[in-house]
Amino acid sequence: MNSVLATAEDKMKKTAAALKDGFAALRTGRASVALFDKIRVDAYGDKQAINQVANIAVPEARVVVITPWDKALISDIEKAIRTSELSLNPSNDGKIIRITIPPLTEERRKELVKVAKTQAEQSRVAIRNIRRDGNDELKKQLKASAITEDEEKKCAAELQTVTDNYIKEIDKILAEKEKEIVEV
C-alpha cells in the first residue's frame, strides 16, 4: 500500500518539475539560458541542441551571448534562433552571436500569464489524475484482500494530503512565474 503512495508522490514530483521546465522556456523579457533549450541546430548532419555546439552566457539582464565552439556553425545557429517561436533577432560579428531580449508589451505579458495559467492547470489536472489512479489501485488491493479497509482509508487520506501539497506547490510555482512576467 505504501508503494502506491510512493509511486504517486514520485509521479507528482515529476509533474511539478515538468511545469518548472515548461515555465523556464516562457520568455519573460529577461535573458535566460533556458530560453534556448528547445532550439535545435543543423550541425554535423544532425539536429543538435544549441548548448551542445556553443557556450551560452547572460552577461546582462537583457542580453544573451552565444559563442559557437565551431565558428562554421555561426550562421546555422543564427538561423535556428530566427526561425524559432521566440521571435528574437540575433546578430553576429563572425565570432559570437548577440541577442538583445526586447521588453515585453503589456498585451504580450497578459498573453504569457494566460499561457502560464493554462500550463499550471494542466499540471493540477495531471496531479489529480495521479491521485485518482492511486485511489483506484488502493481499491483493487482492498478487493483482493491485500490490505484492510482501515489501511485503505488511511492511505487514501495520506494520498489526499500529498495531492494537496503538490497542488500548493504548483500554485506557488505559478505565482513566481506570474510575478516574473509582470515585472518590468
From the structure above, extract its key features.
184 residues, elongated
Short description:
Helices cover 59% and strands 15% of the residues. It is α+β, with helices and mostly antiparallel strands.
Q: For the terminal residues, how far apart are their CA atoms?
A: 49 Å
Helix content: 55-70%
Spatially, the strands of the biggest sheet line up as 3-4-6-5
Unreliable spans: none
How is this structure best described in words?
- The structure is a single chain.
- By secondary structure, the protein is α+β, with helices and mostly antiparallel strands.
- It contains 5 helices and 6 strands, in the order αββαββαββαα.
- The protein has helices at 2-24, 50-53, 74-82, 106-143, 149-182; strands at 40-43, 46-49, 54-60, 63-68, 91-92, 97-100.
- The strands form 2 sheets. Strands 3-4-6-5 form a 4-stranded antiparallel β-sheet. The protein has a two-stranded antiparallel ribbon with strand order 1-2.
- The longest helix is centred in the last third of the chain and has 38 residues, at 106-143.
- The termini are far apart.
- The model has no long low-confidence stretch (mean pLDDT 88).
Lay out the secondary structure.
Blueprint: H1 2-24, E1 40-43, E2 46-49, H2 50-53, E3 54-60, E4 63-68, H3 74-82, E5 91-92, E6 97-100, H4 106-143, H5 149-182
